[in-house]
């Protein structure tokens, strides 16, 4: 396989890195996976981005889609979930609301955190 250097947007690279970790792929492998999926959607022809968008907005049922369209929807869901997880910082949210919370430290010991112990 021949490779060529390509500039990738930072947000896309970060999303690929996070999604790749979930699927045991490197960021480059994840971007390649997404590229193949996009190419397959364009070649397939029966799957339209409009149909996928209708499922994502709840206008159409996922169960009514053919398998390639379902795969495309799952890929979008995967990407959205990965992005939301990357932006999630519960410690900041709890601190902002003055809440106490518990979490496991690096050794697996449960530690209670407060706004003053973060």
Characteristic terms for this protein:
118 residues; mainly alpha; 2 strands; 7% strand
Could you explain how this protein is built, in words?
With 118 residues, the chain is mostly helical. The protein has two domains: 10-87, no CATH class; 90-118, no CATH class. The chain is 57% helix and 7% strand. It has five helices and two strands. The chain has a two-stranded antiparallel ribbon. A hairpin with a 5-residue loop joins strand 1 and strand 2. Helix 1 (10-22) packs across helix 4.
Arithmetic mean of pLDDT: 83
- Characterize the biggest β-sheet: 2 strands, antiparallel
Q: What's the order of the H and E elements?
A: HHHHHEE
Which runs of at least 5 residues are low in confidence (pLDDT < 50)? none
Q: State the strand order across the main sheet.
A: 1-2
Total domain modules: 2
Pairing-aware structural class of the strands and helices? mainly alpha
Distance between the termini: 47 Å
- Would you report the number of β strands? 2
State Rg.
19 Å
Shape: extended
Number of helices: 5
Protein name: ParD-like antitoxin of type II toxin-antitoxin system
Question: What is the topological layout?
Answer:
Layout: H1 10-22, H2 27-44, H3 49-56, H4 67-87, H5 90-96, E1 101-104, E2 110-113
Antiparallel strand pairs: 1-2
In short:
The protein is mainly alpha-helical.
